[in-house]
Amino acid sequence: MTEVYAPTTVSNPKSSWFLVPSKLLDKVQFGLKAAEVGLSLVAFILEELVSSCGNCNPLYFFEFVSCTAFLFTLLLLILLSTRLHEKVGIECWPKLNFLYTVGIAVLLLISSIVLAADNAGSSLERVAVVFGVLATLAFALDVAYFLKTRGSPFKAGPGPGVSNGGPVPAAAPETERLNDQA
What we know:
- By secondary structure, this protein is mainly α.
- It has one domain (20-152): Four Helix Bundle (Hemerythrin (Met), subunit A) (Up-down Bundle), CATH 1.20.120.
- Helix content is 58%, strand content 2%.
- It is built from five helices and two strands.
- The chain has helices at residues 27-48, 57-81, 84-88, 93-117, 123-150; strands at residues 162-163, 166-167.
- It has a two-stranded antiparallel ribbon.
């Protein structure tokens, strides 16, 4: 006896929702972004567990930066590792990723230094600073890896080549006319 209906759907591996590795995010960068999310979340949670502070402004600044790092890095990770980035309408993902990562690394470093310099001395504050610094290192490694593998996202393209150690001479302009009727 033969089957009347043959299967009509064939699995398509390209229709997967998870796109790692892709042109926007390879496996190493995905791992770095996941580490950034985890470390900044732990730093934020530890800061939230602090029950009292002498001067609370450094703690509030660290709270803001670590929470921002966690939430926006998670959003960026979700966007870059799925097809959602295609629906947003942003074309310059490498520049956005690079600038965001550099900015958060700088802010995390500053907020960790400020909290380390001015806190009540509780063990939770010290451990939060450690995780802030670890998150900063993860962001810095991400920036270094980006630059190593892709170069600067602000380069327009390859510049003029070199020949024998000197610049390549410019090509002579064309002297022939397109519609020359000789």
